[in-house]
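Appendix B. Raw example, untouched.
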Amino acid sequence: MSYKLIKLNKENELNRELRKQKKDKSEMAILFVSPWNKYCIALQERLEKRFSNPHPNAIPLYIVDSYNMPHSFVIFNSSVLPQLVTLRKNKVLSEDYLP
């Protein structure tokens, strides 16, 4: 699976993408991270190296950090970071990554 990394800085950007996904029923993923957690930082660095040249059919992976967008974490009940939320047609899959 290939991802196209997109960092979001404002909550309205994420809300716009979620409305678009709900309408289109396209696949997307959201990675919730913390800028102070060493595991989140290491994960982001690995993802940036691995997906620096995304495939044309890559799934968008939106990176949301707790500092810039704290209210976005409530949407998917994110309490453990990093957390990957994958949205498919009518399914929401949530995965917590514990070190």
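End of appendix B.
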